Structures are given as structure tokens and as C-alpha cells.
Amino acid sequence: MPAYQSQLAEKTARLAALLAPFTAPPPAVYPSLPVGYRMRAEFRVWHDGDDCYFAMTNATRERIRCDSFPSACEAINRLMTPLMAAIRNRPALRYRLFQAEFHAAQTGEVMVSLVYHRPLDDAWQTEAQTLAATLGVSLIGRARKQKIILGHDFVQETFHVGGQDFHYRQYENSFSQPNAAVCAQMLAWACQQAGNLQADLLELYCGNGNFTLPLAKRYRRVLATEVSKSGIRALRENILLNDCTNIAVARLSAAELSEAMRGERSFRRLQQDGIVLAAYNFDTVFVDPPRAGIDDATLALLARFPRILYISCNPETLAANLTVLDATHRISACALFDQFPFTPHIESGVLLERR
């Protein structure tokens, strides 16, 4: 598709320009399917007389009716028409419904959340149970201070990386990568950059363990940190799901871990889990920070490690962080992962090694 190749070339040139001051090698480029790539989709539900329909708004706030969504995977598109037909014809499901969220896995498993501006009653639950059974989905109803789960509040995703399957519970209303095919390529690239099998890995911002699980196969031990309680919950479940025995988990922010490693504070959370930082022989630190990038204190912590593996969802903040890390480290590998075709969004990765 020429239009897709053109926008991907523009992104590649933009990333290369941002990394040029750091003498980075040309980025490896991992393209997306131009359609059918999204495993998550969120729509407003627009009510218009006797009709109602899924809708989105564009950059100019214009409302666009969505009877289908080409960016979404086949499983989501297959559900959109029968789900909306059921909502239109069932007042208990339709009344004051304002949002619908879809989350699918590559297996075809789908979870649908319906969000309301009113309390959900027995009539809603009766109709919703019938709908969930008819469509073969997990269905969640959400309203203020209310959440009703019919089935599961997660989908189970599987990524094949390095000849092995890794299984993940991806929970409703929690972060997961929306483009599953490109996510698998990201995991494979990160594993290719892994360091010494006899050394240890420190991971910050680990979330549900998306990178943690496959990287753990490339290191002696992993210490994974995350501040979100829901992220820690999913990570612990995914560790058990994959029978990983060399991962320790600490509920600490990046700033708190920096304080602990500098010896400025001791944390009961580390002691309770039997984590002794001095016992680790860290070869690599892995980071996948939010769009704002990494704060100065954490950058100072990263500079202490021989190798830094950095996944970024914002190339501008990545470049800003690299102006600091360039004093101690050089870029030995980089990549562009096109998670979001036909948007300006760039997901990238760099491996930095000590000078």
C-alpha cells in the first residue's frame, strides 16, 4: 500500500533525525499491517431518536459514525453490528449507555465493556447475560461505583517469542499494547539485545510483565518494579501462568528504587518480599517509561549500568533523555515499531552501552 509505505518512511526519517546527534545506526523498521491491527477500540454511543450507533470524533471534533472500524481486528469488527443491534432493541441495555470498549486477543477472545450514566439494575443484568452468551464474549457493565463482570474482566493473550509461547492476562481498563503483531516484534527485538545470561536484569515500569516474561529467559534473575497495584497484580498472575521462577517483583516507583539503590531509604516492601538489592549482579536495566520520559534522578541511576535497553512511546522525550545518557553511553542498536499506522505516533527502542 503506497500511502502506508510513505507515512512509514516519514516516521523513519523523523526518528533517524532525532537520533542523529547521538551517532545512532540506522533504525531497524518493524511495519504494521495497514488494517486489522488494533486489538482494542473505544467508541462513544450516540443516541439519535430511535437510532443509536458507535461514533468517534476526528481532529476537528467532527462526529463520525462507525458501523465498522477497519483499523480493528476481525474479531472486533465481527461483533460491532450484532452488539449494536441488540443494544438498539433492548431498552435495559440502551438506556443512558454512553461508551463501549472492545478488547480482543489473537485467539479471537473478546471482552466488551459497556459504560453507563445510571445505576445498573437486575433488568440490565438479565439482558446482559443473554447478550454475552449469544455473542460468546465476556461482558462488563460499568457505572459510577459499580462494575458487573459477566465472564472475565480480562482476555488472555499469547505471544510467540524466540520459539516459546508466553501467556498474559490483559485486564479490563489496564494498559496493554494495542497492536499485537507489532508487540510481538518488539518483544523479539528486545530479547535480541539481551546481555549476559549469567547476569541479572533490572526492569522499571514493568506493567503486566509484557517484556518481563520473555526477557527473564535471557538473564539469570530479574527484578521487576512497578508502582501500579493493578499492574503488579497482573504481573504476579502472569508469572505464575508462565511458571517463571527467576523473577522478583517490587511495588516501587522509579524514584523510590533510585533512593533504595543509593542507600537513602529502606523500604518495607523490599524486606517483606525478601529482596536484597546488593545480592544482584545487574548487567542491564530495561525501561519502558510513560510519554513524559524519565526524570533526572532516574537517569542518574541508569547511567550506573553497563547496558540500558530503552523502549520509548515518545521520540521527543527519548531524545531529551539521550542528551543526558550520551555522556556515559553510546547507542549500539535502535528500532522503530509502527504500533499506530497513519498517525504521527512513533514507538521506538534503543540499546545503549557504556562508553
Automatic annotation (TrEMBL):
<protein>
    <recommendedName>
        <fullName>tRNA/tmRNA (uracil-C(5))-methyltransferase</fullName>
        <ecNumber>2.1.1.35</ecNumber>
    </recommendedName>
</protein>
<feature type="binding site">
    <location>
        <position position="288"/>
    </location>
    <ligand>
        <name>S-adenosyl-L-methionine</name>
    </ligand>
</feature>
<feature type="binding site">
    <location>
        <position position="177"/>
    </location>
    <ligand>
        <name>S-adenosyl-L-methionine</name>
    </ligand>
</feature>
<dbReference type="InterPro" id="IPR010280">
    <property type="entry name" value="U5_MeTrfase_fam"/>
</dbReference>
<keyword id="KW-0949">S-adenosyl-L-methionine</keyword>
<dbReference type="InterPro" id="IPR030390">
    <property type="entry name" value="MeTrfase_TrmA_AS"/>
</dbReference>
<keyword id="KW-0819">tRNA processing</keyword>
<feature type="binding site">
    <location>
        <position position="226"/>
    </location>
    <ligand>
        <name>S-adenosyl-L-methionine</name>
    </ligand>
</feature>
<feature type="binding site">
    <location>
        <position position="205"/>
    </location>
    <ligand>
        <name>S-adenosyl-L-methionine</name>
    </ligand>
</feature>
<feature type="active site" description="Proton acceptor">
    <location>
        <position position="347"/>
    </location>
</feature>
<dbReference type="Pfam" id="PF05958">
    <property type="entry name" value="tRNA_U5-meth_tr"/>
</dbReference>
<comment type="function">
    <text>Dual-specificity methyltransferase that catalyzes the formation of 5-methyluridine at position 54 (m5U54) in all tRNAs, and that of position 341 (m5U341) in tmRNA (transfer-mRNA).</text>
</comment>
<feature type="active site" description="Nucleophile">
    <location>
        <position position="313"/>
    </location>
</feature>
<dbReference type="GO" id="GO:0030697">
    <property type="term" value="F:tRNA (uracil(54)-C5)-methyltransferase activity, S-adenosyl methionine-dependent"/>
</dbReference>
<dbReference type="GO" id="GO:0030488">
    <property type="term" value="P:tRNA methylation"/>
</dbReference>
<dbReference type="InterPro" id="IPR011869">
    <property type="entry name" value="TrmA_MeTrfase"/>
</dbReference>
<feature type="active site">
    <location>
        <position position="313"/>
    </location>
</feature>
<dbReference type="GO" id="GO:0005829">
    <property type="term" value="C:cytosol"/>
</dbReference>
<dbReference type="GO" id="GO:0019843">
    <property type="term" value="F:rRNA binding"/>
</dbReference>
<feature type="binding site">
    <location>
        <position position="210"/>
    </location>
    <ligand>
        <name>S-adenosyl-L-methionine</name>
    </ligand>
</feature>
<keyword id="KW-0808">Transferase</keyword>
<keyword id="KW-0489">Methyltransferase</keyword>
<comment type="similarity">
    <text>Belongs to the class I-like SAM-binding methyltransferase superfamily. RNA M5U methyltransferase family. TrmA subfamily.</text>
</comment>
<dbReference type="InterPro" id="IPR029063">
    <property type="entry name" value="SAM-dependent_MTases_sf"/>
</dbReference>
<dbReference type="GO" id="GO:0000049">
    <property type="term" value="F:tRNA binding"/>
</dbReference>
